[in-house]
Specification:
By secondary structure, this protein is mainly alpha-helical. It contains 10 helices and no strands.
Length: 207
C-alpha cells in the first residue's frame, strides 16, 4: 500500500525493508487490532510505515468489520497526531527536529511552513493527502503553535476521510479495489476533501 501523503514503501533493502515486512506480517497475528492501534498511533508522529499495510488485509479478511476497523484506525491515528503535536510543541529541539531528520523530512519543514502560511489550519486537514508526510504535519503543527482545537478537528477529518475511503472501497469491491487504492486513492481522497472544504465555505458564505 502506497502512503497517500507521499511516503511510499521503504527501500527494498536494509532495516526499513525489514520493518516494512514485519509491519505487514502483523496483519495475520491473533491480536492484529492492537497492532493496528499501535501502528496507526505511531505513524502519526515517528513510525515510517503507514497503517494501511495492516488495514487493507484485515478488512479483506473480514469485510463486515470494515467500518469498525476504519474507526479504530482513525481514532488511533488522531491520538498519535496529538502525541506528535506535543513533541513539536514541547520537545521540538530535543526530539521533533531529530525525528524529522531521521526519516528525511527535515528539508520538508520549510514547505510545510509555506503551506501553513497560505492555507492555515486546512494544511492539517489536507495532511493525509498532500506530498507532506502526516508525521511532519503533526510535529510541525505543534512547533508552529497551531490552535489545538482546530488541529484535533482537522486531524479527525483528514484521517477519517482517508481510512473510511479505504474501508468503503474494500467493503464494496473486495480484493479488486486493492489496485485502485494503491494507485489512485490519493487523488480520490483529495477530491473528497475538496468537496468538504467547498461545502464548509458555502455554509459560511450563506450564513
Amino acid at each position: 500500500m502506497t502512503e497517500m501523503s507521499g511516503e511510499g514503501p521503504p527501500p527494498q533493502v536494509g532495516p526499513l525493508r525489514r520493518l516494512y515486512d514485519w509491519t505487514l506480517a502483523l496483519a495475520g497475528k491473533r491480536h492484529a487490532v492492537w497492532a493496528l492501534v499501535a501502528v496507526s498511533f505511531a505513524e502519526s508522529s515517528f513510525f515510517p510505515i503507514p497503517p494501511d499495510l495492516l488495514l487493507i488485509p484485515m478488512i479483506l479478511a473480514r469485510r463486515a468489520r470494515a467500518w469498525w476497523l476504519a474507526g479504530v484506525c482513525t481514532l488511533s491515528s488522531a491520538a498519535g497526531g496529538l502525541f506528535g503535536y506535543a513533541i513539536g510543541y514541547y520537545l521540538f529541539d530535543a526530539f521533533g527536529g531529530p525525528l524529522l531528520d531521521l526519516w528525511g523530512n527535515e528539508d520538508k519543514l520549510a514547505a510545510f511552513e509555506r503551506y501553513r502560511d497560505e492555507w492555515g489550519a486546512w494544511i492539517v486537514a489536507a495532511g493525509g493527502f498532500t506530498p507532506l508526510p502526516y508525521k511532519l504535519i503533526t510535529v510541525a503543527s505543534g512547533a508552529g503553535r497551531l490552535d489545538i482545537g482546530v488541529f484535533i478537528l482537522a486531524s479527525l477529518l483528514s484521517r477519517g476521510l482517508r481510512f473510511y475511503i479505504v474501508a468503503g472501497l474494500l467493503w464494496q469491491f473486495g480484493p479488486a479495489a486493492r489496485a485502485f487504492i494503491e494507485r489512485r486513492l490519493g487523488l480520490a481522497a483529495l477530491l473528497a476533501l475538496a468537496v468538504v472544504i467547498a461545502a464548509v465555505l458555502a455554509l459560511r458564505f450563506v450564513g
